[in-house]
Amino acid sequence: MSPESQGQNEHYLTISRRGFRTWRGDRPFWAGLFTMLGGLPIMYFPYANMHLGNVTLAMSTTAGAGSLIIGVLLVTLGLTMWFHSIVRVFAGVAAILLALISIPVANIGGFLIGFIFALLGGALSVSWAPGEPQAEAAAEAEPVPAEEAPETVSFAKDEPFPEGALHGAGIPEQPQAPYDTTVEAEGGRHRAG
Question: Could you tell me the pLDDT band of residue 45, with boundaries at 50, 70 and 90?
C-alpha cells in the first residue's frame, strides 16, 4: 500500500461535496427543490408590501390564508420528495394539483413564478426513477457464453424435484379452468335476469 492512499488526505469539503452528491443522486432532488421554490412566492406575495416612493401597495387579498396553506403544503411536499422518496409519485401529483389550484386562489399562482416552479417540480417528481448501480447494470448487459450457460434439467412426471431445482424459476403456468357452455346457451344472461 502506498503512503498516500486514496481518501486519507482529502480535504473535508471534498468529502462533504462527494457525500452530498451521493445523497442528491438517491432521491428526486431537483423535483423537491423546484417544488419548494414554487411554494415560496405563492405564500409570500399575498402578504408582501411594495413601496413606491411614499406610496405603499399592499398585495393582500381575501385569499391570503389559502395562499399560505398552498405555499406551506408545496414546501412540505418538496421536503417529502427529499426525505421520503418512496412517495414521490403521490407528492408529485399533489404538487401539480396544488400548482393548478394556486392560479385562481393565490394571485395567479404567485404571478406565475410559483405556478411554473411547482408544476415543474411535480412533473420531475412523477417522472423520477431510482437508478441502478453501475456494476449490476453492466453484469446484466453482458451475454453469457454458451460454454458457461447452465444446463437444462428435465424430470419425469412422478419423480419429485431435487432440493433447489426450482430456485429462481418463474411462476408455473396455471391449468385452464374448464369452459362453461351454460352461459352461451342462456343467451349470456344469468338466471336472475
Answer: confident
CA 48 to CA 72: how far, in whole Å?
A: 16
Q: What is the percent of the chain with per-residue pLDDT over 90, rounded to a whole number? A: 31
Distances (CA, A) of 166 to 51, 144, 169: 76, 21, 5
Name the 3-class secondary structure at 3.
Answer: coil
180: helix, coil or strand?
Answer: coil
Owner of C-alpha cell 473535508: 12
Q: Which three cell numbers stand for residue 158?
A: 412422478
Distance, CA of 50 to CA of 121 (rounded, Å): 28
Q: Is the pTM of this model over 0.85?
A: no
> 167-184 burial string, b = 16+ CB within 10 Å, else e?
eeeeeeeeeeeeeeeeee
| pLDDT for the residue numbered 190 | 58
